[in-house]
TrEMBL record:
Residues 336-501 form the Helicase ATP-binding domain. Binds 2 zinc ions per subunit. Transmembrane segments: none annotated. GO terms for molecular function: hydrolase activity. The gene is priA. Zn(2+) 1 binds at residues 563, 566, 603, 606. SUPFAM superfamilies: P-loop containing nucleoside triphosphate hydrolases. Residues 48-59 have a biased composition (Acidic residues). The keyword Hydrolase applies. Zn(2+) 2 binds at residues 572, 575, 590, 593. This is Replication restart protein PriA.
Length: 860
């Protein structure tokens, strides 16, 4: 039984298990949002803080909230997140023992004096990586300040008060020092509840990102800035107007307005009064000047929110009778819900097996008990189709998406927080939706790369969802036809429960996949991208009035612009990567930084007239398709054609209604689409991503090919797939062609085991960037030395690689180097980085920054 609040342990009660320090003395005002730079080491303070760096570092490592790895860690780590950790917090001389006695600490060498009568707030900041720092709460602020509110406090030598977030209030100053006072409380009510505050501190620790930045990711800026509210000035009669003789001496229009306002008995805005008194602003302003009106300015919620989304794309309301696979899956999910345990479930259902219906039924079960659910989807799947499916089945759905205005975002956030919403559907940031009675978190297409944020804090929504579900003791449901190896491995190691849906709804067969070997000359088409076989298949499909999807995962027209005479390749001056030629507008564009120039008509090096466009992008494919199949109605979908809000849904509904015959595009056409009349899917070049210098290259290729192949055979007319490749024998492509996830997963796990790559071990990456190449490299080298010595001091088993230039060795004018860390134990890995960077300083003149990326999803 899913019961009420009581069955969910209250994790909000206890203090946050992170050590506190006094405010730093040498802070920095010049911190950049996404990076640690030269002098940001705010925790670098006086006396005991640095006297014995080893004790201090180790205490920090151990006393902090341990970072749970994704499934692959001991339950102790999770306990840290779920339990109020009273025995640790504020008791720095306790013996902190984590895995394998690794971080046992000596008692600190100084005596502590505890002042029990002082009310203390622990505060974290945006640009101070360490902390929290303790401040005294003056008596007049004691009742007003709660965790989750912002405060103004003095920080180091800064002249102006700094904004910080209060994460804990407590009695007793245990720092042994005199604390500075909280200067001001900035919010009337907490911006997030205790469990979310705890999630922030966990994320800050695990991702090694300042907690203030994590708060910024958690709370929409419009909420922080209280956008969506507006100031309105209300008018009421002033005391002077009580004198009848004064009122009578007025011009007629002014009299009428004033009498009306007195009669109304409640304040009005001047525009309301103008309507009622049928006058212009003139008489009202005159009354103001005479002091006959009192003004009161208030901030109010703007009430009605316009929405720019259409809700339906013509699909009928559906409530299917469940297939056997679906009922079995639902049964196991409801069992998990009823057990009120923090179970992780992986729903592995082949494409078209009806996973969405299972999600909806599971949420119905949650809603029945007065609870709510979050459904995370890849941003690109936030189509009206997905949205409609949820909106038709639940009374109150909040859909979050990136094209919302700040006011809309604010409005939805408030609704969610007030408990008015049953289901939140949104991309990765929706994992933070402040639902007061959350009962289930779902990640659809859980393997999708968009769940990882590529700016600070570099979190993965799956891991954050896992942490949030654990802390609330609720189930986490992951769903995919091509699960990430992380989630798959969790089912093999007993950390997650596997639920399989091996067949399609209605027992439809999986589509036939045919591989075309592009190494064989006869298979390639002369001067084109479409092989003979694919050409034939498209022709047949169009003749049968079926629809076609063609996947090419590269936008633009030509991917290199090269001089055949001297060999010069036109490249980005800031990134040194080849520019891509875009035919619309004749532009050459850098796909890494958007640097754009007019495509040069001759070679900029040798002036040779006859520069060549090599490589294939979607624009060139579109030209070829239109030439080969002139009668077909074709649309292209990639991030160039889909810039305008709504263009995505426009093309998809045209395709659904049969106004288009052929859809070509990048991976955005590979996901989630459910169109029964698609009889053919063509993959133009399956190896495009296969030979990337990234251990996930095979996994990505398998996922992409399997997912796009899954777009066909979803109706009663069958479907087939043609995959063009230069590597037909590659395991990922072989497995995808047979729809054999298991074969792929087993072979790939074996590959990863050789190097302890995730999911077997953990990886972190540190990117160092700067304007001067050798200074940047020298910084990378000295950071490496620090990592080596931290590893030694901790006795941590961590492999260190680098520094080396990554594939993108220069980006936006900055040289880049990276370091890779690898370990079987995420705790040791995190601790090594923490110790190495804690006191790492880069001289300001070097202008070098570094970024820590825990569990990186790409190595570029
Ligand atoms: N029990 C059912 N009976 C009939 N049709 C169903 C049933 N369940 C789902 N469907 C329909 O089957 C189609 C496929 O379902 P859905 O899109 O949920 O599959 P999926 O597993 O999410 O696939 P993919 O991973 O490819 O996105 C949809 O059109 C859906 O309406
Ligand atoms: Zn040339
Ligand atoms: Zn560039």
């Amino acid at each position: 039984m899913l019961t009420g609040e009581a069955s969910h342990p209250d994790i909000s009660a206890g203090p946050i298990p992170m050590p506190s320090a006094v405010p730093p003395q040498r802070p920095s005002d010049t911190h950049r949002t996404d990076t640690r730079s030269s002098n940001t080491d705010a925790a670098q303070t006086d006396d005991a803080q640095t006297d014995d760096a080893q004790t201090d570092d180790a205490a920090d490592v151990a006393g902090s909230l341990s970072a749970p790895g994704f499934f692959d860690t001991s339950d102790d780590a999770i306990d840290d997140l779920t339990k109020s950790d009273g025995k640790r917090a504020g008791n720095p001389d306790a013996q902190h023992v984590t895995q394998g006695q690794l971080f046992e600490t000596d008692p600190p060498p100084w005596e502590l004096t505890v002042d029990e009568d002082v009310a203390v707030a622990s505060v974290v900041f945006r640009d101070a990586p360490y902390g929290p720092y303790d401040y005294r709460i003056p008596p007049e602020l004691r009742d007003r300040l709660h965790p989750g509110m912002r405060v103004h406090v003095p920080l180091g030598r800064r002249k102006r008060p700094t904004v910080g977030w209060c994460i804990e209030t407590k009695m007793g100053n245990k720092t042994g020092k005199t604390l500075s006072d909280v200067a001001e409380v900035l919010d009337d009510a907490p911006l997030c509840d205790r469990p979310l505050v705890r999630l922030v501190t966990w994320m800050s620790h695990y991702y090694q990102s300042p907690a203030g930045q994590v708060f910024d990711a958690l709370i929409p800026s419009s909420v922080r800035a209280s956008a969506g509210t507006r100031e309105r000035t209300y008018l009421s009669p002033s005391p002077a107007s009580a004198d009848e003789s004064v009122v009578d001496a007025l011009p007629a229009k002014q009299q009428r307005a004033l009498r009306l306002l007195i009669a109304a008995g409640k304040p009005m805005t001047s525009s309301q009064l103008m309507v009622h008194a049928e006058c212009t602003a003139g008489p009202i302003n005159a009354l103001r000047k005479k002091g006959l009106l009192d003004e009161d300015t208030r901030r109010e919620m703007a009430t009605s929110m316009p929405t720019r989304w259409q809700t339906s794309d013509g699909e009928k309301t559906e409530s299917h009778e469940l297939t056997d696979d679906q009922s079995n899956a639902l049964g196991r999910i409801t069992a998990a819900l009823d057990s009120a345990a923090a179970k992780t479930l992986l729903l592995h259902g082949v494409t078209g097996s009806g996973k969405t219906e299972v999600y909806i039924r599971a949420i119905e079960h949650v809603v029945k008990f007065g609870r709510a659910a979050i459904v995370l989807v890849p941003e690109i799947s936030l189509t009206p189709q997905t949205r409609g499916r949820f909106e038709r089945r639940f009374a109150s759905v909040a859909v979050l998406h990136s094209q919302m205005t700040p006011a809309e975002r604010h409005f939805q956030w408030q609704r969610i927080r007030r408990g008015e919403v049953q289901v939140v559907v949104g991309p990765r940031s929706a994992v933070f939706a402040p639902l007061p009675r959350l009962g289930l978190i779902i990640l659809d297409e859980e393997h999708d790369g968009s769940f990882k944020q590529d700016s600070q804090p570099r979190y993965h929504a799956r891991k954050v969802a896992y942490a949030r579900a654990q802390s609330l003791q609720i189930p986490l449901l992951l769903g995919s036809a091509t699960p990430s190896l992380e989630s798959w491995y969790a089912t093999q190691s007993g950390h997650a429960e596997l639920i399989s849906m091996p067949s399609r709804v209605g027992n439809r067969p999986m589509p036939d996949v045919q591989l075309v070997d592009l190494r064989i000359k006869d298979e390639r088409s002369r001067g084109g991208a479409i092989s003979r076989q694919l050409h034939l298949a498209v022709t047949e499909t169009l003749r049968e009035k079926g629809q076609v999807i063609l996947l090419l995962n590269r936008r633009g027209f030509a991917t290199t612009i090269q001089c055949p005479s001297c060999g010069h390749v036109v490249a980005c001056p800031d990134c040194e990567m080849p520019l891509t030629h875009h035919r619309d507008g004749g532009k050459a564009v850098c796909h890494y930084c958007d640097y754009t120039i007019a495509t040069p008509p001759w070679c900029p090096e040798c002036r040779f007239d006859g520069i060549r466009y090599g490589g294939l992008g979607t624009q060139k494919l579109e030209v070829e398709v239109k030439a080969r199949f002139p009668e077909a109605r074709v649309a292209r979908m990639d991030s160039d054609t889909m810039r305008r809000p709504g263009s995505h849904q426009k093309v998809l509904s045209a395709f659904r209604s049969g106004e288009l015959d052929l859809l070509l595009g990048t991976q955005m056409i590979a996901k989630g689409l459910d169109f029964p009349n698609v009889l053919l899917v063509g993959v133009i070049n399956a190896d495009a991503a296969l030979h990337f210098p990234d251990f996930r290259a095979g996994e990505r290729t398998f996922q992409l090919v399997t997912q796009v192949a899954g777009r066909t055979g979803r109706g009663n007319r069958g479907g087939r797939v043609i995959v063009q490749t230069f590597s037909p024998e590659h395991m990922a492509i072989q497995a995808a062609s047979r729809h054999d996830y298991l074969q792929f997963a087993q072979a790939e796990i074996a590959n990863r085991r050789k190097f302890n790559y995730p999911p077997l071990g953990s990886v972190a990456r540190i990117i160092i960037r700067g304007a001067v190449e050798d200074v940047t490299e020298a910084t990378a080298n000295s950071l490496m030395l620090r990592l080596e010595s931290a590893r030694e001091r901790l006795g941590a088993e961590v492999r260190l690689l680098g520094p080396a230039p990554p594939p993108i060795a220069k980006l936006r004018g900055k040289y880049r180097f990276h370091l890779l860390l690898q370990s079987l134990d995420p705790l040791q890995l995190g601790a090594t980085i923490r110790m190495a960077t804690k006191t790492f300083k880069i001289p300001e003149k070097d202008d070098v920054q570094y970024v820590i990326d825990i569990d990186p999803m790409d190595m570029l």
